[in-house]
Amino acid sequence: MSQQAAESSPRQPILIHDPTLRDGHHAVRHQLGRDQLRAYAAAADAARVPVVEVGHGNGLGASSLQAGRALLSDEAMLSVVRDALTTTKLGVFMLPGWGTTESIRLAVSYDVDLVRIGTHCTESDLAERHLGLLRDAGVDAHGVLLMSHMASPERLAEECARLVEFGATGVGILDSSGHYLPQDVSTRIAAIRSAVSVPVIFHGHNNLGMAVANSIAAAEAGATILDACARGFGAGAGNTQLEVLVPVLERLGYDTGIDLYRLLDAADIAARELMPAPPTIDSIGVVSGLAGVFSGFKNRVLDVAAREGVDPRDVFFELGRLQAVAGQEDLIEDVALALRAGSTGQRERTASHV
Amino acid sequence: MSQQAAESSPRQPILIHDPTLRDGHHAVRHQLGRDQLRAYAAAADAARVPVVEVGHGNGLGASSLQAGRALLSDEAMLSVVRDALTTTKLGVFMLPGWGTTESIRLAVSYDVDLVRIGTHCTESDLAERHLGLLRDAGVDAHGVLLMSHMASPERLAEECARLVEFGATGVGILDSSGHYLPQDVSTRIAAIRSAVSVPVIFHGHNNLGMAVANSIAAAEAGATILDACARGFGAGAGNTQLEVLVPVLERLGYDTGIDLYRLLDAADIAARELMPAPPTIDSIGVVSGLAGVFSGFKNRVLDVAAREGVDPRDVFFELGRLQAVAGQEDLIEDVALALRAGSTGQRERTASHV
């Protein structure tokens, strides 16, 4: 029935990278327990998902008062998921600052197959030491750029080329605030694709309902590693929905090697065992995506806006205009106070103003 | 930040048609009450949504044992929503068979601004009498084709041209099973666009996570009337999410005339007052969309599959292969029995087989 199935052309392989047990952790304040990790990891393994990523939402070493204490230690999470996997590879995520060289050694000691090092989109230099360490240890290492809508395609391509020099065996971009539309993704992936010879990665969020479409745009522009989570379980409005993306890719002529029925089973297990409710796009999710603000700011914005009696939507749009980045949480207070004083923003805003 | 904003080019107008109080009725077994209808209609009116459609999920005259009894009569629904609207137009939906010429007279007596007549995608002839009646009454009338993925672009264009001959002032297609990917929509809308001179309509469902992307593809191919519901409230995996589509359209340079903040307020009211939970894409939703099966079959398939001890996913794929259409519910039994007897389908299915 579809006009798009490319049955006669050779099927392009796409490697699906599944951070359900890492990005999804954001949605449950990092409180997944052993049985939950084990149940989902085993189900993903049975479906032949190539890589499962596990950890605190902010990655190795991030469990803390500031980022939220995880229920389990990094060691416990790695151990449980390592034991649950047979053919699926074990991946971890790390943001330098939260994670350290010690975290890398820990991951290596648990026989992790793949480590992802993430940095802000213009700060790939921060990944040099960790990528070098992983290259020396012979462990597959990805370098990924967060909040990537804040940099031009050319700049992202340069940063990715640098990540490859540091030793990354795959590089790419995260749409951390769910801001992209498909054409934004195409341009950026194409620029990166032409700058590097390693596999290119795309990781979407669904704030504007575009996570699946953006991932397809990424594949069409040459990305060969796509991130997706069961039921979209992830920060804010959620990630690209895994069990939707996979059959859509297959229908378009890509080859994921994944068993659809078992993938649907895994998603059902995730829905039942991991999440109070699957992610949906609420009004704050829409505004956060439009404004291009880091999803992690949500609760702080809501708290501060309520206290100061200002519209949290105005706070998001102003933070977007100021190009606030993760780590600049202090700006939230400044913006709310300025809005209360009437020195910026406006309470009425038509859709054409965004 | 987006590469796509077309700020310098003239903004193309898009008319948003909002069936939250009609398609959403499917999700709550047609049980919305007066206060609920009033609250949402007033909020949509305040946001300057151009048209609000109200009624039983299957439209005028459909309240019945077979299609489900609505809490309110057609008269009560029309009366409450008519009173709640100031500038927003009042729309109704009708499927010939459920609705009759009497239903049209009723709608006209309640001063309805717009009547939509829906038929299966190859049966536009069934709308002739009703569209003629509306033309004679001077009421704006749309003709829309259900389950439109089952017909070729050329056939849909012919059927739409016929609807225009009958008197339709707008024509288009419903993706009733949520089967389309953007390229499928582009081809069909372009074919219809070149066959008629009235506005072209697209109505999406989100089974494959593509409702917003498909609606954008429709606009880019020349559709100027797009359907969308608050939080996607609608049958099965839900419709295109209204408060996501509108700002995405605006960002791409289209003009909806809608107030974003008040639209987000209306969506929040819908989430709080109308729905037990916003629609999400569950595994059956994915399978139903992939198979191209009418969403209304869902509960019957689940019941019959459980009784016969077969996999409901196999039943969906087999119904899709048989091109079952709404009204052919008997096929569900036949397929389940055949699967139990082992004479069709298979229990293991990789993603590449869909």
TrEMBL record, chains A, B:
Family: Belongs to the 4-hydroxy-2-oxovalerate aldolase family.
KW Secreted (keyword) present: no
Name this protein carries in UniProt: 4-hydroxy-2-oxovalerate aldolase
GO biological process: L-leucine biosynthetic process
Catalytic activity: (S)-4-hydroxy-2-oxopentanoate = acetaldehyde + pyruvate; (S)-4-hydroxy-2-oxohexanoate = propanal + pyruvate
InterPro entries given in the database record: 2-IPM_HCS-like, 4OH_2_O-val_aldolase, Aldolase_TIM, DmpG_comm, DRE_TIM_HOA, PYR_CT
Domain Pyruvate carboxyltransferase: 14-264
Polar residues composition bias: residue spans: 1-11
Enzyme Commission no: 4.1.3.39
Swiss-Prot/TrEMBL keywords: Aromatic hydrocarbons catabolism, Lyase, Manganese, Metal-binding
The organism of origin for this protein: Micromonospora sediminimaris
